[in-house]
Write a structure and sequence with these properties.
By secondary structure, the chain is mainly beta. It has 1 helix and 43 strands. 1% of the residues lie in helices and 43% in strands. The radius of gyration is 59 Å and the shape is rod-shaped.
Length: 563
């Protein structure tokens, strides 16, 4: 059964003396012995001897059987104990020869291994409970002992810091305990004894083969004590973190100071309260293996609720100490969320589109929009004025959290639609006129409709007003687009037909317009020299040449020859 001896469990045996505290004592007088004997630790458990706990000091005589021969032997009495032992000549732990025990002799003895009649072997006795020395300063082990033994027969002392799984021999100040037939006090103080949560000690008697043999007594032990120097109680003071407001998932250092001692393997851990300052279910935000003051690298986990009443404390595990709470509240801010990227295809002539509705997730409505041409805009996309491309949404409304960013890509549907409505005046000349030449900003693969039908189209050589619908079938799910066209066909001006005419110098003045039957009356004449001409030619003073009549852009050339 694993037992741990702590300060609270040994209050009855604590004896203040010169600033010391007695952590463990085994005088072998109590009803419960704190040692197990004849264990298998460190290769032990076989041989011609055994461990006993009794108050027998008287020796005696006996007979041993060796290869069928009876050999008499004498076990001398064990030396009496001095007054320094708590119960002189009371119970003690010691080895005894199994042959001696068979002869009724149970004081401290051993049977030396000779390779013939007595087998070699090692015998181990160990504490069956742990002693916690954390926070106790220097630890001293003391015990009374005797062992005459020989060069091959001696005692050893061991310690364990893991509950007796691994044992380490103590070689300072003595490695082999022998050559001492009277009781003497041994004290051992090593740094490794301090700050251990499960310290134990054990004793081994080694009985190697030797023709020279050895002499009683064997290995005897009494009044085993562990004393700790009184030390400053372990304490932790949690320092102040650098800032008072942190963003979720921020990293920072938590400083702490200590007093007293902390054991090897100790971890200082920073814990975060809930938003009300309660540590009922703290959140670990960082840890560092250390036994001294310093700082703990910490990181706030995601998913914490925002709040203004968080606190931090530092705790230790060797010993288990809860430090003070940080001196002031800290606030934790949820970072702003710009949502996830989106995209959309818009149609020519579509209504304005709120870009915010195209973001994925649950974006915060506190950001700003920037167009593909790096211009800040309202976030209302108007296909008639805004270009296609990537529109960037940035939220920066949760200091000190970093800004978040998402984008919406606007793609124009294939085709430009029918374009703008058109009002145009055209001349009634017929010829190669086509309304497609008047399409304004749209596709030219649409269909003109007149009077509810795609054909026939009006005769644009006839004056009049003609209203047409221009319809374009768009792609990418965009609706059919229509533009209204209104053509006003104006009758073409008439300057008559060109001709040549001969006048005599003696002829009367002639109105040249009479030579152009059907011509419009609102034209103008120019003479052969290019100057203005009244239109009435007097042969007596006029000159031969080309007289030109122009009506609203229509030019008719009339050649007049005087003879």
């Amino acid at each position: 059964m694993l037992r741990t001896l702590t300060l609270s469990s040994v209050l009855g045996m604590l004896v203040p003396a010169f600033g010391q505290q007695e952590l463990f004592i085994e005088s072998f007088e109590g009803a419960e012995v704190l040692f197990d004997v004849n264990t298998s630790d460190v290769g032990s458990g076989v041989g011609a001897n055994t461990w006993l706990i009794n108050d027998v000091f008287l020796g005696g005589n006996g007979i041993a059987d060796c290869l069928g021969f009876e050999l008499p032997f004498t076990i001398p009495s064990t030396a009496g104990q001095p007054a320094g032992i708590s119960t002189p000549n009371g119970n003690y732990l010691h080895t005894a020869s199994t042959v001696a025990i068979a002869n009724g002799i149970e004081n401290c003895s051993f049977g030396a291994a000779d390779g013939f009649c007595t087998d070699p072997g090692n015998h181990f006795a160990r504490m069956n409970m742990d002693v916690n020395t954390i926070g106790q300063g220097d630890i001293t082990l003391s015990f009374w002992w005797l062992c005459l033994g020989g060069a091959s027969n001696y005692g050893e002392v061991y310690y364990s810091t893991d509950g007796g799984t691994v044992w380490t021999q103590i070689t300072t100040p003595i490695a082999q305990y022998s050559n001492q037939s009277a009781w003497g006090l041994q004290t051992i103080s090593l740094p490794v004894f301090a700050e251990q949560s499960s310290l134990r000690f054990g004793f081994r008697f080694v009985n190697n083969t030797s023709f020279a043999g050895g002499s009683d007594p064997g290995f005897g032990i009494d009044d085993i004590r562990m004393v700790g120097e009184a030390s400053v109680p372990a304490e932790i003071t949690t320092g102040v973190v650098p800032e008072s407001v942190y963003c979720m998932e921020s990293s920072f250092l938590v400083p702490y100071s200590v007093q007293g001692s902390f054991g090897p393997g100790n971890a200082f851990t920073a814990e975060l309260s809930d938003a009300t300052g309660s540590f009922a279910t703290p959140t670990v935000i960082g840890s560092v293996l250390s036994t001294s003051a310093g700082s703990i690298p910490c990181a706030l986990p995601g998913g914490l609720p925002a709040g203004i009443g968080y606190r931090i404390r530092v705790v230790a595990n060797m010993p288990a100490i809860i430090g003070s709470v940080s001196g002031s509240d800290i606030s934790i801010v949820q970072p702003s969320n710009a949502g996830s990227n989106g995209q959309s295809t818009y149609c020519n002539g579509s209504d304005p589109i709120p870009l915010f509705t195209l973001l994925g997730g649950t974006p915060d409505a506190c950001g700003t929009w920037v167009s593909p041409d790096a211009i800040v805009m309202s976030g209302l996309f108007d296909p008639s004025i805004h270009p296609a491309g990537v529109y960037t949404y940035t939220t920066d409304c949760a200091a000190p959290c970093p800004a978040d960013m998402a984008t919406v890509t606007m793609q124009q549907g294939t085709g430009l639609g029918a374009g703008n409505d058109v009002n145009a005046d055209v001349c009634a000349e017929g010829g190669s006129f086509t309304p497609y030449a008047y399409v304004d900003g749209g596709e030219t693969n649409g269909q003109f409709w007149y009077a509810g039908a795609p054909f026939p189209l009006p005769d644009f050589s006839m004056p009049g007003v003609y209203a047409l619908d221009y319809i374009v079938q768009s792609g990418d799910g965009c609706p059919t687009d229509t533009a209204l066209f209104e053509f006003t066909v104006i009758e073409a001006p008439n300057a008559g037909s060109g001709l040549s005419h001969t006048l005599c110098f003696t002829a009367a003045p002639l109105d040249l317009l009479t030579l152009l039957p059907g011509a419009d009356m609102n034209g103008v004449w120019t003479g052969p020299s290019g100057g203005a001409f009244s239109g009435v030619l007097d042969p007596a003073v006029g000159i031969s040449g080309i007289y030109t009549y122009t009506v609203a852009g229509r030019i008719r050339v009339r050649m007049i020859i005087l003879s």
